[in-house]
Design brief:
A 7-stranded mixed beta sheet has the order 16-18-19-14-13-21-22, sandwiched between helices. Strands 10-9-8-11-12-24 form a 6-stranded mixed beta sheet, sandwiched between helices. A 3-stranded mixed beta sheet has the order 1-5-4, with no helix packed on it. The chain is globular, with a radius of gyration of 23 Å. Helices cover 38% and strands 24% of the residues. The chain is α/β, with parallel strands linked by helices. It contains 16 helices and 25 strands. It has 2 domains: 2-258 and 470-495, Aldehyde Dehydrogenase, Chain A, domain 1; 262-451, Aldehyde Dehydrogenase, Chain A, domain 2 (3-Layer(aba) Sandwich). The structure holds nicotinamide-adenine-dinucleotide (NAD). Nicotinamide-adenine-dinucleotide is lined by residues 155-160, 164, 182, 184-185, 214-215, 218, 233-235, 238, 242, 257-260, 291, 397, 399, 425, 464, 466, 470. Nicotinamide-adenine-dinucleotide (NAD) is lined by residues 155-160, 164, 182, 184-185, 214-215, 218, 233-235, 238, 242, 257-260, 291, 397, 399, 425, 464, 466, 470.
Length: 497
């Protein structure tokens, strides 16, 4: 099968999108490298403090008119954006594959999930309605009006360059706020493409801004007195030690989503074939670089026959995963994003071995790349047995295509392991017993829970939950919680004499 055409040809010079204009940055320039072949596909600026300040200023200036634009009219801009995103669906998906490395099908899924947030935000005229009580006392009425606040900063991670800023931005602008988005500097192209379509959709200048860069831009947002709130998605150290405390110190509202180390609990009564297939995408999809990826499978019970069948099933299926260029439609796993990330994953595999885990599928060497590509960022699937809950490959986030196997006797033990983890993003159980599933769902602490589902990714009209060290804040991105986050509840008590 032919490899799909690359949408980015040559080297793209990325600019900032501020006040409806494409602006060159005075900051240092960094290469954006396609991990499949090491080719430089773009150059991205690491913007300066002055540049983030000018974007916030533009957003602040756009706010009064945008806030007065009726929600139905704001929704029309979002409807136009949705149509443009659909019209460019395939190109947007291929850009993700080129800048990130994931397979084209994974990118198409990401594009769909991103657009769904725009669709949900199109319902803003009803989503933003308040509520009222007549006669709270004689002749006095009381009502609540959700009102926008002003300017919000949106900070994205590298693993979903297209979708994740869309967990926030459509809701922020639909409610009448203005945004400044800072994509991960490793993968800035998807947000640049979205901004081109935002421009075409006719949003007023200053409502939607994109400033590329790194810590200077993030710090500029965190310290800026005119930024009302921040949504952040990234690793736990950044969420916990940088974003959350700094927002607290400067009085900003915050959603800070962090990392994960998720468990897939396997009961011996599960449907084995379907479970194994679900685990393949959970552990190895997106090359394991998903905050909802399974990191360890917990096999419950002392049925050796089931255990052996499970192990041979996962190893045989994982071995067959086709690895290569994500733009080849036959490929099922692309490279990891860069050499540093690969190094980190390799060091976790070594630490697992040092701590007593046994490799039964070695993704460090036991894999073949389809096509002629350097193995710089590629890894195969690694499966390790004899994993214990206290090992680093359980307590820390690996973020790569690895599966640890933990064996326990009872469901109680499995739930305890899930709940002892500092991370609580998305744990799942595989079983055919409703009582067991209910017990798991009831007791497990993670914010997203799967029952016979390997990637517990909430739809746009549900919050993207998470708790423990996977989330800092109260309200979550997506759906009604995002509407609540991006608005203040103004309460009016009214009497006419
Ligand atoms: P990261 O924390 O390194 O970076 C995230 C963003 O913060 C980037 O835009 C980066 O430029 C900025 N940043 C990084 N360090 C900073 C610092 N010290 N000061 C200021 N800004 C800083 O995360 P990443 O490697 O890009 O993304 C992967 C992580 O994101 C994983 O841990 C993954 O689990 C997590 N993630 C979580 C969710 C979720 O919903 N909980 C979703 C996707 C990814």
């Amino acid at each position: 099968m032919a490899i799909l055409e690359e949408p980015i040809k040559g080297i793209l010079e990325v600019k900032n999108y501020i006040d409806g204009e494409w602006v060159e940055s005075a900051g240092k320039i960094q290469d954006v490298v396609n991990p499949v072949n090491g080719e430089v596909i773009a150059r991205v600026p690491i913007s300066t403090k002055e540049e983030i300040d000018s974007a916030v200023e533009a957003a602040k200036a756009a706010f009064p008119d945008w806030r007065r634009t009726p929600p139905v009219a704001r929704a029309r801009c979002l409807f136009r954006l949705k149509e443009l995103l659909e019209a460019n669906f395939e190109e947007l998906s291929r850009v993700q594959t080129q800048e990130h490395g994931k397979t084209i099908d994974e990118s198409r899924g990401e594009t769909r999930r991103g657009i769904e947030n725009v669709e949900v935000a199109c319902g803003i005229p009803t989503l933003m309605q308040g509520y009222n009580s007549e006669d709270i006392a004689s002749g006095i009425d009381e009502y609540l009006i959700p009102t926008p606040l002003g300017v919000f900063g949106i900070i994205g991670p590298f693993n979903f360059p297209f979708m994740i800023p869309l967990w926030s931005a459509p809701y922020a602008v639909a409610t009448g706020n203005c945004v400044v988005i800072k994509p991960s500097s490793e993968v800035p192209l998807s947000q640049m493409k979205i901004a081109e379509l935002v421009d075409e959709a006719g949003f007023p200048p200053g409502v939607w801004n994109v400033v590329n860069g790194g810590r200077t831009v993030v710090n500029g947002m965190l310290d800026h007195p005119d930024i009302e709130g921040i949504t952040f998605v990234g690793s736990t150290p950044t969420a916990k030690n940088v974003i959350y405390p700094r927002c607290g110190a400067t009085g900003k509202r915050v959603i800070a989503q962090g990392g994960a180390s998720n468990f897939m609990v396997i009961m011996p009564d599960c449907s084995l074939r379907a479970t194994i297939l679900a685990l393949m995408t959970s552990f190895f999809g997106n090359a394991g670089q998903r905050c909802l990826a399974g990191q360890n499978a917990i096999i419950v019970g002392d049925d050796d026959h089931f255990y052996n069948e499970f192990i041979s099933g996962v190893v045989d299926t994982a071995k067959k995963i086709v690895i290569g260029n994500g733009l080849d439609e036959e490929v099922q796993m692309g490279p990891v994003r860069d050499t540093e990330k690969k190094k980190k994953i390799l060091s976790y595999i070594s630490s697992g071995i040092e701590e007593g885990a046994k490799i039964i599928l070695d993704g460090r060497s036991d894999f073949r790349i389809k096509g002629n590509y350097p193995d710089t960022c590629f890894l195969g699937s690694t499966i390790m047995e004899n994993v214990k809950p206290e090992m680093k490959i359980v307590t820390e986030e690996i973020f790569g295509p690895t599966m640890g196997i933990i064996r326990v006797k009872t469901l109680d033990e499995a739930i305890r392991i899930c709940n002892d983890s500092p991370f609580q993003n998305g744990n799942a159980i595989f079983t055919s017993n409703g009582r067991t599933a209910r017990e798991f769902k009831y007791r497990v602490k993670s914010g997203n829970v799967g029952i016979n589902i390997g990637i517990v990714a909430p739809m746009a009209f549900f919050p993207f939950s998470g708790t423990g060290d996977s989330f800092f804040g109260i309200l979550h991105t997506q759906g009604k919680e995002a509407i609540r986050f991006f608005t203040e509840s103004k309460v009016v008590i009214e009497r006419w004499l």
